[in-house]
Amino acid sequence: MDDKLPGTLPGSRRPGRGPRQAQEIYRATLELLGGGGYDALTVEAVAARSGVNKTTIYRWWPDKDALLGAAIVQSSLLRFDVPDTGTLRGDLSGLVHRLVGLMTGEATSGVVVAALAAVAGRPSLAWLAREFVTDRLAGERAVFDRAVERGELSGSVDPALVLDLLAGAVWSRVMLRQAPVPDDFADEVVKVVLEGCAVRA
Amino acid sequence: MDDKLPGTLPGSRRPGRGPRQAQEIYRATLELLGGGGYDALTVEAVAARSGVNKTTIYRWWPDKDALLGAAIVQSSLLRFDVPDTGTLRGDLSGLVHRLVGLMTGEATSGVVVAALAAVAGRPSLAWLAREFVTDRLAGERAVFDRAVERGELSGSVDPALVLDLLAGAVWSRVMLRQAPVPDDFADEVVKVVLEGCAVRA
After folding, report:
1. CATH of the domain at B33
2. Cross-chain CB nearest to A198 (options B116, B153, B179)
3. Which of B4, B14, B67, B122 is deepest in the core (most CB within 10 A)?
4. Residue B60 lies inside a defined structural domain of this protein
5. How many DSSP H helices and E strands does chain B contain?
6. Dihedral pair phi/psi, residue A60, rounded to 5°
C-alpha cells in the first residue's frame, strides 16, 4: 500500500500519512495568507486558527514556508477535478473555466492573489510555484494523452507550453488587467490555441 | 502642438509637460520599488534618491500611487519599441522576445516582479495595471492592424485576447514557474497562437 502524499516538498519531513487535521491546518494557512499576505502568516497564527497544537504543526513542517508549500499543493480548496469530456476542446475549455473560477471565486481569489504575490516577490519561494505546477501538470497531462490517443493532437505538442498559454491568459485577464471575463472567454482562448488565429493559406 | 504626455492617470495633475527631471524621478521610483517592494516606496525616498525636491514631486503627483502609476507607464526602463518586421509571425515573436527580456533582464526583472506583486496584492492599484496594459496595447495594436491589411489576420481577431495569451505565457513560464526559457520559446508560443496545436481535420 502506497500511502505517501503526492508531491515532495523541500524541508518537509513527511511520514506515511499526513496529520489527521491536515486539511484544517491547510485551510487556516491559506485563510491567513489570503487575509493578510505572506507576512501575516505565522505558524503560531495557524495553530490558533486551526485549533491544532503548534508542536504538532512543527512536527510535520519545519517552518512556515514548508507549511505554505504543503497547503498550496495539497489543500482541497485549490484542487479541482480534471475534466474528461470526450474532446480536447471540451477538456481545455473546462480547465480554463476552473482556473477562472479559482481566480475569481469568493473563497479562493484572495488566496490565489496572495499566493501569486508571495511567490512573485520571493525567489526563495520559487520551488513552491514549481511544485504546484508540477503537481497539477501531472494530473492535467491525462487531457493531452487522451487527445493524442483520439488523434486530436500530435504527440509532439508540449502540454506545459499549452498550459502556459491558457493559464497565463486567465492570469493576464483576471489578475493583471483585472478586466471582466466574458462568458465566451474560455471558448475563445481555447479556439485560438487549438485552431490558431492566422488566416490559413 | 500636442504636448500632453500619453496616458491619463487618476489623481495626477498633469500640465502640458512633465517636469524636466521626470525620467530621473521615474527611475528612482522603480529602483525603490524593485529594491524593497511597495512598502519601501515613499515620496521622501524618491526625492532623496533622484535629488529632486519633494515639493516638486508633490506638485506633479499627489501621492505615491500616482507617482508609481506614472513611472510604470512612462518610464523608458519598461518601454520597448514595437516590432515591424513585415510579418505577423515576426512581429509577435519580437514582442515575446521583448517581454522575456523585460521579465529576465538584470535591470528590469526585479522591477517587474515588484510591480506585479504590488498590483496583484492590492485592488486599489488595479487601475495601474489597466493603465499600463491600455497604454501598451495602443502601441501594439499596430502589429495587428498591419497583419489585417496584409491579409494575415481576420479583422475579427481580438488583439487583447492574443496578447493575454502571449504575455500570459511568458509570465507563467518566467514569473510563476521560474522555469528556463529555451531559445525557441517565442517561436513556439507564437506558432501555437497563429496555427493552433490541434491536428487539422
Report:
1. 1.10.10.60
2. B153
3. B67
4. yes
5. 9, 0
6. -95, -35
Is residue B14, in this structure, part of any structural domain at all? no
C-alpha cell belonging to residue A193 = 490555441
Task: Please list every residue in chain B whose beta carbon sits closer than 8 Å to the beta carbon of residue A170.
Answer: 168
Nearest Cα to Cα of residue A172 among B179, B116, B9: B116
In tens, the pLDDT along A127-178 reads 888 888 889 999 999 999 999 999 999 999 999 999 999 999 999 998 888 8
Residue A35 and residue A86 in one domain: no
d(CA A93, nearest CA chain B) in Å: 14
Q: How crowded is the C-beta side of B137, counted as CA atoms within 13 Å?
A: 16
ipTM of the complex: 0.85
- Of the residues A35, A58, A74, which one is the last residue of a structural domain? A74
Contact criterion met (CB < 8 Å) for A165 and B114: no
Per the structure block, which three cell numbers stand in for A167?
Answer: 493559464
Contact list in B for residue A119 (CB cut-off 8 A) is: 176
Cβ–Cβ under 8 Å, residues A178 and A152: no
Domain count, chain B: 2
In a domain, B1, yes or no: no
B167/A168 CB distance under 8 A: yes
| Cβ–Cβ contact B201 with A under 8 A | no
